[in-house]
Amino acid sequence: MKTITKILTTTKRIFKDRESAGNELATYIGNELKGQPLDNAIVLGLPRGGVPTAFCVAEKLSCPLDIVVPRKIGAPGHEEYAIGAIDENGQGYLNQSVIEMMGISQRYLHQQIELEKKESQRRRSVYRSGKSPIELKDKLVILVDDGIATGSTMKAAIESVYSKSPREIIVAVPVAPDDTLQDIQEMKKVDKIFCLCVPSNFQAVGCFYKVFDQTSDETVIRLMNKK
User: Fold this and answer.
1) Fold entry, domain 4-69+127-226
2) What are the residues facing 169 on neighbouring strands?
3) pLDDT of 173-183, one tens digit each?
4) What is the DSSP string of the chain?
């Protein structure tokens, strides 16, 4: 399995909002996959912020939209610092080197994994409004988020999708730091990575948007019901 990283620019650029970034990303994906049939493709968004971007990609490429709901595992006392992430089945990615360095116990990890697994299951049920997930076996899966920072949730999403035996996995995002993209590439579970902007000075995803307000549950549900 060969990973191809596509990067348009390494200079800082600003997207208007998640929707405009999604439209631009869709155009780029369409050009890169020109000649490749997309009738077997599925776009998966990462809630919440990734869903408006994924919705625009799915619309423009005429693909069905679904979600994968990874949940971040935070460090004890520093919940915003991700030491990994898991999906609704508890599958995902844990940064073992950081866990060992911080001396994090297996008991803490087990408790947090169970807690976030239940929250992932709850969100998946709410966002899908009772609809069954789309079968991913032998499909071309395009994983979309509004950007990647540390990569923990995207790595968990990749692990979740990979376990369902898709034909191909593409990660597509408007912006991400180069070292995180390299980490994802080294997983060897992704076939292609499309990123519109890989800045030399990355601080946070929101720094690359004019409008980066919080995406509500209601917005995610509304967009999911449109597809």
Assistant:
1) Rossmann fold (3.40.50)
2) 141
3) 999 999 999 99
4) ---EEEEEESS---BS-HHHHHHHHHHHHHHHTTTS--TTEEEEE-TTTHHHHHHHHHHHHT--EEE---EEEEETTEEEEEEEEE-TTS-EEE-HHHHHHHT--HHHHHHHHHHHHHHHHHHHHHHHTTPPPPP-TT-EEEEE-S--SS-HHHHHHHHHHHTT--SEEEEEEEE--HHHHHHHHHTS--SEEEEEE--SS---GGGGBS--PPPPHHHHHHHHHH-
Amino acid at 90: G
Q: Which of 79, 183, 73 is nearest to 119 (CA)?
A: 73
The fold of 72-125 is Ybab; Chain: A; (3.30.1310)
Place of tokens 């620019």: 9
pLDDT tens digits, 101-127:
999 999 999 999 999 999 999 999 999
**Any idea where the domains of the chain sit in the sequence?**
4-69+127-226, 72-125
Give the global pTM.
Answer: 0.91
In the structure encoding, which two tokens stand for residue 138, read together? 């032998």
Question: From edge to edge, which strands make up the β-sheet containing 41-45?
Answer: 4-9, 192-197, 168-175, 140-144, 41-45, 65-67
